[in-house]
Amino acid sequence: MTRAVWLTDIHINFLKPVQLEKFYQLITDSQPDCILISGDIGEAPRLKYYLQQLESRLPVPIYFVLGNHDYYGASQQDVVNGAWTTEPSGVKPGFATTA
Question: In what order do the strands lie in the sheet with 62-65?
C-alpha cells in the first residue's frame, strides 16, 4: 500500500527556521512514499526556492497544484515560467487555474 502525506496551505514563507525544521521532521517521521500538496506553498518570488527545499529535505516524489498565494507577487505566466525552469527531479507540478 502507498503511504501519502497530504499537505495544504503550508505557507512556508511564514515559518521560522525552528518551525520549518519541525515541519520537515513531522513529515519525515510519517515515512511517506509520496507527498501531495494542494496549494499555497509560498509566495511567487520564492516559490522555486521553496520547492527545491522541499525536494532536498523530503526525498520522495512530491506532487502539487498551486494555490492563489503561490501567485502573489507575479503574474500567472511568470510563476509557470519561473518555477520549473530547472524542474527538481522528484517534484511533479500540476496546474490549477485560479480565478
Answer: 4-7, 34-38, 62-65, 91-93
DSSP code, position 95: -
Architecture in CATH for domain 4-74: 4-Layer Sandwich (3.60)
Contact 28, 56 (CB under 8 A): no
Per DSSP (E only), the strands in the chain are: 4-7, 34-38, 62-65, 91-93
Question: What's the mean pLDDT when you consider all of the chain?
Answer: 84
| pLDDT tens digits for range 64-88 | 988 999 988 888 888 877 654 444 4
Which residues, in sequence order, are bridge partners of residue 37?
A: 7, 64
pTM score? 0.77
Write down the domain spans for the chain: 4-74
